[in-house]
Description:
Layout: H1 9-51, E1 58-62, E2 65-69, H2 71-114
Antiparallel strand pairs: 1-2
Helix pairs in contact: 1-2
Amino acid sequence: MSRDVTLPSQLQEQLLRLQQLQQTLQVIISQRQQLELENTEIDRALSELDKTSDDGLVYKSIGTLLIKSEKKKLIEELRERKELTTTRISILTKQQQRVEERLKELQQVIQEKIKPST
């Protein structure tokens, strides 16, 4: 025999909110990972630029083109980009922590409502 279980509307809303928070958390984690990867690439680029002589030829990638650039300007651009990505990573990390806390709290509330009374 199948038993239809109807959840109270408040519990349904909380479960929906839980799913939304989980999706939000996944998006935040994904964005943070992309920025961390970009930071790693910037570090590698800066490391390689440090190895080149000041009068050596350097190019920067713009879309599918490589454009001749000045080493000093390129280093400055990369450092600014690194600063921006580091700030964004910090913001996303804080957002991730807040969402994880809300998720944990909501999971506890839901579990209390689902737990059979004794």
